[in-house]
Amino acid sequence: MNSNPIRARILVSGSVQGVGYRHRVATIARRLGIRGVVRNMEDGQVEIFCEADNKKQFDDFIFEIKQPHFLIVVENIVMYLEGQDGYYSHPHQSSEFGIEH
């Protein structure tokens, strides 16, 4: 395990609300061992807080959450890595991956 995990806040826009996207993100994250939370935002975007143990794990996660799936269409992803302006962590970050309702 890397001593410096990769932490990010990710904003996803497109057809990502009401189509099972949060569940899909959580399923992918859990399979890859990513920790974090996914939630809908009032402006129609989905916000993801994630923590990966290494770059490959993080890159695999980003690749998979971009893929279209049934009604899901990701148009844009904006990433804020820990230390960058726009990054903040979820107040209830955990050792697993959850869906905020």
Write structural notes for this entry.
- Helix 1 runs antiparallel to helix 2.
- 24% of the residues lie in helices and 36% in strands.
- It has a single domain (6-85), classed as Alpha-Beta Plaits, CATH 3.30.70.100.
- The longest helix is centred in the first third of the chain and has 12 residues, at 21-32.
- The model has no long low-confidence stretch (mean pLDDT 91).
- The chain has a 5-stranded mixed β-sheet, covered by helices on one side.
- The protein has helices at residues 21-32, 55-66, and strands at 6-15, 35-40, 46-52, 73-81, 97-100.
- It is α+β, with helices and mostly antiparallel strands.
- The chain is globular, with a radius of gyration of 12 Å.
List the helices and strands and how they pair.
Elements: E1 6-15, H1 21-32, E2 35-40, E3 46-52, H2 55-66, E4 73-81, E5 97-100
Parallel strand pairs: 2-5
Antiparallel strand pairs: 1-3, 1-4, 2-3
Helix pairs in contact: 1-2
Give a concise summary.
The chain is an alpha+beta fold and 101 residues long. It is 24% helix and 36% strand.
Major sheet attributes: 5 strands, mixed
Q: State mean pLDDT (0 to 100 scale).
A: 91
Share of helical residues: 10-25%
Shape: globular
Class by SSE composition:
alpha+beta
Percent of residues in beta strands?
A: 35-45%
Unreliable segments (pLDDT under 50, ≥5 consecutive)?
Answer: none
Radius of gyration: 12 Å
- CATH-derived topology: Alpha-Beta Plaits
Separation of the first and last Cα atoms? 31 Å
CATH architecture: 2-Layer Sandwich
